[in-house]
Design a protein that fits this description.
Layout: H1 9-16, H2 31-39, H3 42-53, H4 71-88, E1 94-102, E2 112-121, E3 131-138, H5 156-173, E4 181-187, H6 195-206, E5 210-217, E6 234-239, H7 250-257, H8 265-280, E7 285-289, H9 301-306, E8 311-316, E9 329-331, E10 334-336, H10 345-364, E11 370-375, E12 383-388, E13 395-404, E14 412-416, E15 421-424, E16 432-440, E17 452-454
Parallel strand pairs: 3-4, 3-5, 5-8, 6-7, 11-17
Antiparallel strand pairs: 1-2, 2-4, 6-8, 9-10, 11-12, 12-15, 13-14, 13-16
Helix pairs in contact: 2-10, 3-5, 3-10, 4-5, 5-10, 8-10
The chain binds zinc ion.
């Protein structure tokens, strides 16, 4: 819109900042978000997990006609629950099935409908409505093999926990308004090869949907390892750096050439998750893991990552593999199977709170700044960033962030007004990593953006 304005304002701003280059402040507290976080209920999460388990199996290949058993009954129940939440909250939440027919593949012996349940809370402000955040869990389950259509596959933790967390988020958040659009999704076909999530992500990409962030909650309810170790005060957030593509995109090359491999979209989003947890769920911890996922594992964030969307996986800190992907049985006195008695509902509720704080803060914050660049015009010890000022009138300024290249989190900041260029005097871009956030009047900050090098 407005032309670029290169002013000397920047030096003045640098001189006025006190204390100079301090650590960035925590996220501002929003009383309404605090209320929402407090409203998350472990008891409701428990009740929903037990109900999901009551369908005996939710395998994608299981029967769909019964009203009490199999994946068809499970998804109709999920939809009815969310429709009830929509009705209780002014009907702004829309609930629909998103179905496709999966062709025969390694884990699909015959063409099978894969049905996602998608609940959408449209952004309350027109100019933010096309900014979309997706939070997901998979409601399908499996026994020891994913192609066993029958037999008990309770899936209490994998991924009844993620499904119940998403349902709780939808029901609590639908009572409130957010600038950006929130999509609460429970998908099928995860155990068959991420089929539901892949179908949704591809359709979104084809429609040009601006997904600013995606979170999959998968296995978020266990707090006890097989050796008895209990870790109930922290969760893991897996955030990819450089995507493992055969050929690097131009975008990735720019990152890697300038030491930005820890500043991909998912890593910036992951830093926001940690900041949201610190502000709203104290006493709980987010361990940000600079990795796509655990070894030998995958999840519904993969198709989103592969299409260039910033996506994360939320997972419990310690896993007990006797209660994942196992036929329900007893062997040498050990109980196998993914049963509700092995789920820590209070823990899953804390994971839900971290989701809620993340989504609510982002959906009320400005969009990330656009066209963020770092001037590379000559050799110097100062650093100059430029960007395109937002059309959004609520953006009141920008925050320049930086940290040592080997440090995982932002260490310093300098706030500037509604300008389009600033110089950080005496801090060399050769020695640190920079990022830029957009700010509103309340101090809500967007996800940070890594500046692309700009040469004359
Ligand atoms: Zn899973």
């Amino acid at each position: 819109m407005a032309g670029r304005r290169f002013t000397a304002l920047t030096l003045v701003a640098a001189a006025a900042a006190a204390p100079l280059h301090a650590a960035p402040p925590p996220l501002p507290k929003d009383a309404e978000i605090e209320k929402m976080v407090a409203a998350v209920s472990a008891a409701r999460i428990e009740a929903r997990i037990r109900k999901l388990v009551s369908f005996e199996t939710r395998n994608t290949l299981s029967e769909t006609q019964s009203e009490t058993r199999g994946i068809g009954a499970a998804r109709r129940w999920i939809k009815a629950e969310l429709e009830q939440c929509a009705a209780d909250s002014g009907k702004r939440l829309t609930v629909e099935f998103d179905e496709h027919l999966a062709p025969v593949s390694a884990r699909i012996p015959k063409p099978t409908p894969v049905v996602n349940m998608v609940a959408t809370l449209p952004g309350a402000r027109a100019e933010h409505r096309d900014r979309v955040f997706v939070v997901s869990g998979h409601y399908d389950s499996m026994r020891s093999t994913p192609v066993a259509a029958d037999g008990l596959a309770p899936g209490a933790n994998d991924d009844g926990s993620g499904t119940a967390v998403v349902m709780e988020l939808a029901c609590v958040m639908a009572r409130h308004a957010f600038d950006a659009t929130l999509v609460f999704m429970t998908v099928a076909g995860e155990e068959q090869g991420l089929l539901g999530a892949t179908s949704y992500a591809r359709a979104a990409k084809a429609r040009g949907v601006n997904i600013e962030g995606m979170i999959t909650n998968d296995i978020v309810g266990n707090s006890r390892a097989a050796d008895g170790t209990v870790v109930n005060d922290r969760m893991r957030v897996f955030a990819e750096g450089v995507p493992p593509a055969r050929e690097m995109s131009e975008e990735t090359q720019l990152l890697v050439r300038t030491g930005g491999e820890n500043d991909s979209g998912p890593r910036q989003l992951g830093r926001h998750v940690k900041a949201a947890q610190e502000a709203y769920v104290p006493g709980f911890k987010v361990d940000l893991i600079y990795r796509r996922d655990r070894y030998l594992r995958g999840g519904d964030h993969f198709p989103f990552l592969d299409l260039g969307y910033p996506a994360l996986r939320f997972t419990e800190y310690v896993e007990d593999f006797r209660h994942q992907h196992q036929d329900v049985r007893e062997e040498n006195g050990v109980r196998y199977g993914d049963l509700p008695e092995f789920v820590d509902f209070a823990y899953a509720a804390n994971v839900a709170r971290v989701n809620l704080a993340t989504l609510a803060t982002l959906a009320r914050a400005p969009a990330p700044p656009a066209e963020v660049q770092m001037e590379n015009f000559f050799l110097e010890n100062n650093t100059t960033l430029r960007w395109k000022a937002a059309a959004d009138p609520r953006v009141t300024g920008y925050r320049v962030l930086w940290r040592d290249t080997a440090h995982p989190f932002w260490q310093h900041h300098q706030d500037v007004g509604r300008v389009e260029r600033t110089t950080v005097v005496g801090v060399s871009k050769d020695n640190v990593v920079f990022g830029l956030q957009a700010l509103d009047k309340a101090g809500n900050a967007s996800v940070a953006v890594f500046p692309k090098p700009l040469r004359r």
